[in-house]
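Weekly modeling sync, notes
Attendees: S.R. (lead), two postdocs, one rotation student

Agenda item 3: backlog of single-chain predictions. S.R. asked that every request posted to the team notebook include the full sequence so nobody has to chase files. The rotation student volunteered to paste the first one in as an example of the format we agreed on. Action items at the bottom.

Example entry:
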Amino acid sequence: MMAVAATFLTSASFRGVLYIVSFSLFVYGLYGLTGPKTAVRGNRLAALGMGVAILATLLRPHVDNWALIVLGAVVGTAIGGTAARVVKMTQMPQMVALFNGVGGGAVALIAWAEFRSSGGYAHDATYVAIFSASAAIIGSVSFWGSGIAFGKLQGLIAGKPVTLGTVQRPASALLGLAAVGCAAAIVSGVHQEALMIALLLTAAAFGLLMVLPIGGADMPVVISLLNAFTGMSAAATGVALNNTAMIVAGMLVGASGTLLTQLMAKAMNRSVPAIMAGGFGGTQELPAATGAASGTVRSTTAADVAIELAYAHQVVIVPGYGLAVSQAQYAVRDMTRLIEGQGVTVKYAIHPVAGRMPGHMNVLLAEAEVPYDQLVDMDVINPEFAQTDVALVIGANDVVNPDARTNRQSPLYGMPILNVDQAHSIIVLKRSMRPGYAGVENPLFLNPKTEMLFGDAKASILAITAELKALTGPAAAPSPGRSGV
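Predicted structure, as returned to the notebook:
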């Protein structure tokens, strides 16, 4: 009886059923990520699907080295679980870039291991060599490119574009051709391991040169693109290894990453090739473009801001990376409850590339239990700014820069922005007058309708909240489980 059960559990049919269950859970999990109310369930379903896929793989015949497998699972679980608990929301883009790179690196190593175990694909079908070599190139590019993205976001590498000057593009093209040439030689039947190592190294150098010239302002698009690369490399590896779960999971990641990359590029009104050819942004401060607005910076106080908010009919809050850095999302939620109690309509204007990761602001505000129906996309909220009494900009910069509409000499020109300058009154919470991540000055700050409240975003919000309490009487209930204080 035990022998029959063991035979059934290790049969190809049973593994096939498990793989179908696993990628079905992947699909349902991905669907759950369409909204914050179902996102947690979606993540759990996808994680369960991955667990089923791992189980099915371990049931394959000739799986050995159980000590290494268990050791890897323990180490990976410890690292992943710890990172998920201790990494701050402001560091989430870096973690996404790092984890995505690890996936690409794993695919590259699998291709190398398969090359060694098969004697250079000597007895494998040609398609196995093609897909495995392709996975090695894409995975290596993703690993090293994601490493540079992580370094730029973490501040370990300068956020500004880093290039080799006039030889940048020829060098990149030469390295790309060299990697493809090594792959072609491997597929044609050359079995020397040095060729596979050369493929991995040239692809690595290509990945480094591909991401280094990209400025910090384009990092959200780069992260999304590299995520698509990792998915495609995993799918290619799945074809080479005849692993259905890897094919489906890789295609899901690759397709969703590609679509997201296109949407992000559209939100910046720039083509993906233009972004990859070299972006802008980082730690440098570029001079103001000719024709930029002139005027005087007007500063304000928390008490004056509280009065404007309390007597407004509609307030639109524009969150940006500064809100994430100060972790002010809970304080903002508590403040808005006070003014909502006075009958003020509050909405949040969400720009597609606000923050450093797609959906960064949505996740941040959902964490503070901001009602999802208050998060309004750019295309929907823009027509409302003309009827908005107060636009409260918290740490956003480039996504509200009116030069993007009017100044052809600005590097932001053509990028769709939030039309904050059309509001009746504009209040900007910002540490200083330093330009945003794109490195260009913002004439919105000199607009006669704009008042600047300088300082840490969270401290400023708490000061405004204290003034509101004095104006409105008893405070509304704070956010459940967390306080903005």
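Discussion: group reviewed the output briefly. The first strand starts at residue 314 and ends at 319.
Action items: rotation student to repeat for the remaining queue; S.R. to check formatting next week.
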